[in-house]
TrEMBL record:
Pfam families: SMC_ScpB. It comes from Candidatus Faecalibacterium gallistercoris. PANTHER family: SEGREGATION AND CONDENSATION PROTEIN B. Participates in chromosomal partition during cell division. May act via the formation of a condensin-like complex containing Smc and ScpA that pull DNA away from mid-cell into both cell halves. Belongs to the ScpB family. The gene is scpB. HAMAP family: ScpB. This is Segregation and condensation protein B. It is found in: Cytoplasm. GO terms for cellular component: cytoplasm. One of its GO terms (biological process) is DNA replication.
């Protein structure tokens, strides 16, 4: 199969799938070696980086998703006639920060860190798709734990959680431990 046809197949599958999909899953579905899929994804990503393209191929950890470029978002929103999502409240941002930096975490852990009830913030973040349940923790009562989602990465423009800015104080503590 020629590279142009391979890229066309990947483009069609990514467009139709809509959600982020792993290279391994693409390889299995297309019956191609994963290395060939990764090569095709890299080529597509390079093509979409050209200024004459309105699309982007996002790498979200080990998943890939076809999306529109941010600079054309206003046109897309107006065309789809969607309203702008309500901004996150300060409480929701604090809750999301606790989850992003410490995941997976229980609601009790979030409330211990914040010092207040976080039920409505957790519910709001679940509803917006920024967090999801991550199973149950091996603690008394087996509480539900939460983690961030791929949607969280997209919204904040991150390819992985490694892209989160360092927490003030953590680097200082690590430097003190390393420095004699």
């Amino acid at each position: 199969m020629e590279q142009a046809e391979m890229m066309a197949v990947l483009e069609a599958v990514l467009f139709a799938h809509g959600d982020p999909v792993g290279a391994g899953r693409l390889a299995a579905a297309l019956d191609w070696p994963e290395s060939l899929v990764l090569q095709g994804l890299d080529a597509l990503q390079a093509r979409y980086m050209q200024p004459d393209s309105g699309l982007a191929l996002l790498r979200l950890g080990d998943h890939w998703q076809l999306a529109t470029k941010n600079e054309y978002g206003a046109y897309v929103r107006r065309t789809l006639d969607t309203r702008r999502a309500a901004p996150l409240s300060q409480a929701a941002l604090e809750t999301l920060t606790v989850i992003a930096y410490n995941q997976p975490v229980s609601r009790a852990f979030i409330e211990q860190v914040r010092g207040v009830d976080s039920s409505s913030s957790v519910s709001s973040l679940l509803e917006k798709g920024l967090i999801e349940e991550a199973g149950r923790l091996d603690l008394p009562g087996r509480p539900v734990s939460f983690r961030t989602t791929d949607h969280f990465l997209r919204v904040f423009g991150l390819s992985s959680l490694d892209g989160l800015p360092p927490v003030h104080g953590r680097d200082d503590e690590e430097e003190k431990e390393v420095t004699p």
